[in-house]
Amino acid sequence: xxxxxxxxxxxxxxxxxxxxxxxxxxxxxxxxxxxxxxxxxxxxxxxxxxxxxxxxxxxxxxxxxxxxxxxxxxxxxxxxxxxxxxxxxxxxxxxxxxxxxxxxxxxxxxxxxxxxxxxxxxxxxxxxxxxxxxxxxxxxxxxxxxxxxxxxxxxxxxxxxxxxxxxxxxxxxxxxxxxxxxxxxxxxxxxxxxxxxxxxxxxxxxxxxxxxxxxxxxxxxxxxxxxxxxxxxxxxxxxxxxxxxxxxxxxxxxxxxxxxxxxxxxxxxxxxxxxxxxxxxxxxxxxxxxxxxxxxxxxxxxxxxxxxxxxxxxxxxxxxxxxxxxxxxxxxxxxxxxx
Length: 339
Prior knowledge:
Layout: H1 12-25, H2 30-43, H3 47-58, H4 67-80, H5 84-97, H6 102-114, H7 118-133, H8 144-157, H9 163-171, H10 178-181, H11 186-189, H12 195-217, E1 222-226, H13 229-238, H14 249-265, E2 271-275, H15 278-287, H16 297-307, E3 312-313, H17 334-338
Parallel strand pairs: 1-2
Antiparallel strand pairs: 2-3
Helix pairs in contact: 1-2, 2-3, 3-4, 4-5, 4-6, 6-7, 6-8, 7-8, 8-9
């Protein structure tokens, strides 16, 4: 979410303004774009401006896809410029809401950690792990930061390893172990006169940088395009030639699940679903100087949505609503139907 480019090379205020303008042109992407704009304002030092954007999203009449994430970002930002009480209240609210998305948990736990609230940070990481990982033998990629953060905080507290710490060790792919990376005494080696200690710290820093680069370079999902019922009806009314692609909504949903299962069976990683809207698709077709009735645009449109960070990971985690919008759990809906 947060740009990692140095302020020396990016005019963060100008980038935030550009993203706000783009959000005005593409309201269906406003949440994603305004969160990025707020991150640029934080990097520019305009934390009140970033809070204003978070408030704008939270007060919008349009329901947010990730309201807990926006609240978590707001809390983290508020604490950085002296609004500790409000930040704590938001963090308590997020923990009480128990979101199924790992990102808000990581943000609020790291906010607590950065302000030396290590016990509270450990409790938050642990609460998230119990909620999201208790019945999962292979934690999804998005949950790895929960385990790594929990390991880091517990190492600083001097807590003995438990099963989740051991799991974090097995998921960590760097040549330098998590115990070494999270050693609380590392800070002293930076001021050492011992060349061996300095060289060891350089190796640790390189390993950390490699891990960050791997996370940043992780490709966006191989995404399948999903049309909700009303959107598909509008699409086929306006462009009836696409009926050959979508004979019925039920068949459309079944094809999505079957395609994703086939990709998973073939070993394709990082699968996801993107949800289309007719105005967004028409704007994409116009940008490609083509007609929306051209079926070859559909996979390109899906890829573009995924590249914007709009894909939802598939399969959904245990207990999460099905991707199709039925408001039933995935295990009771398309997972069962496909089986």
